[in-house]
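Take a sample.
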Amino acid sequence: MTAAEAQQDLLLVFDETVTRADVDGWLRHLSFAGAPTRVYRLGAGHVLPVSGVDSAELLAAAHHLPAPTRQVVRGGAAWLGGRPLRPAGTRVRIGPATIGDGSVAVIAGPCAVETPEQMTATAELVAEHGAVALRGGVFKPRTSPHSFQGLGFGGLDLLVEARRRTGLPFVTEVVDPEHVKRLAEVVDGFQIGARNMQNFALLSAVGQTGLPVLLKRGFGCTVEETLAAGEYLLLEGNDQVVLCERGIRTFEPSARFTLDLTAVAQWKQHTHLPVIVDPSHSSGRPELVEPLSLAAVAAGADALLIDVHVQPEQALCDANQALRPEQFAGLMTRLAGAVAGLGRSLQER
């Protein structure tokens, strides 16, 4: 450690091999040295911030304690998600599917759960063509209060039946902290929508469940603000967080939003959290979903979130952006070739 680093605030990172008793020993050591004593969980590991003392002297005097897995200079407002804490990245498990293991995972399904027939047919379709998880909203916050708002808790049974038939785990959007506990009893993962990215009470409530979370970037929020929102989930000890780029609002009117692939590349460099891209909501146009999916994977995305409907013309939500069955099948075929060309593979069930 350099002299300059000795005067900087540090994070002491302990992986799951270090016991809580050993972490408590470090807390006593910090207290004796006059440093603040606080511990954060990061999955099965722990992180201890060190400030206000000479870090070099503090570490030298801790020879009787297990050494930290790594020492990281603390910087920025979202340091629990910083890549230096986990240089190899975090793997997020949604049922049997994994996001962040180097492969490309596809989560697909309708924007909204509508009918038993629609949900079953769409689930079987996406499973047949290689999706590893299912998406489907039962609560749909919409711009207009007169638009379809989802089936609510009644739609959960349709997702559960689709999971039973196909074996696909599912994620669904949560919009109210009061809904979290009930949903957590059923879902394989949560989605927090763009409008709720900075709903801090909701973030904390979802983080406390320990379940996987797809955190969608607000369409008016920056790269750093999205990382800060993810930090609320991490502060609850939940490291099963996936950042979702779903397009930002710009002056360009030719598509619904502008997909910001710069954000994907930056997140892959600066955070250990995996990244998923939603090319459907960003473009709002089915003919753009395939090229944006290929570009997202080339930019380093770990997964794709794709809107698919067996009969888009009958969809009650975002009908104009959903892929038809033949379009999804074609996308998955061409995606496999593109992914292989990048030295990666499509995740399989």
Remarks:
- The longest strand covers residues 45-50.
- Residues 325-341 form the longest helix (17 residues).
- The two ends are 45 Å apart (CA to CA).
